[in-house]
Amino acid sequence: xxxxxxxxxxxxxxxxxxxxxxxxxxxxxxxxxxxxxxxxxxxxxxxxxxxxxxxxxxxxxxxxxxxxxxxxxxxxxxxxxxxxxxxxxxxxxxxxxxxxxxxxxxxxxxxxxxxxxxxxxxxxxxxxxxxxxxxxxxxxxxxxxxxxxxxxxxxxxxxxxxxxxxxxxxxxxxxxxxxxxxxxxxxxxxxxxxxxxxxxxxxxxxxxxxxxxxxxx
Length: 217
Hints:
Blueprint: H1 15-32, H2 38-52, H3 55-63, H4 72-90, E1 100-111, E2 114-128, E3 131-146, E4 149-157, E5 160-161, H5 162-176, H6 181-216
Antiparallel strand pairs: 1-2, 2-3, 3-4, 4-5
Helix pairs in contact: 1-2, 2-4, 3-4, 3-5, 4-6, 5-6
């Protein structure tokens, strides 16, 4: 079981509660990626991220043993940066190419205070020879309850854990900075700002394209 030192113990969540959560919030997440207006898509994703991701758990887990090495001021800076990085990272996931998504719960399994809910997403990419063409993707949501609210601490996409991806990336950055947390925070700020800038460029390009289309119309 994934455990983050210093994080408060989660409340118990039942399998049925977790299944209902995954059925509704998981589908909301996937449908958000199909929203054609990037500003609206990002607004929807931001709301889901801030409400239904256990940011305290995830942010501490991904820096693991380095969390206690930070000062209180560095921990606050890091958490704020992590929120910005997380919000930016989720928006880069390549799900907006899909023409259609169908979503179903495949099963749920209790593991301590967590419930792992397996789901199947069928992605329709288009048609080939007059027939729908697509693929199936397995998503596994790892859920627990905090303050009476069910929240996700990890999502596995085809067995690839986003939580462990975060940790691998951050550990690599910290190692490159010789374990100096101040340098790590500076590099995380640069990385986050770069992703945010690219996302803003994407929004501007779409808005310009829509304006040009409207004028031609």
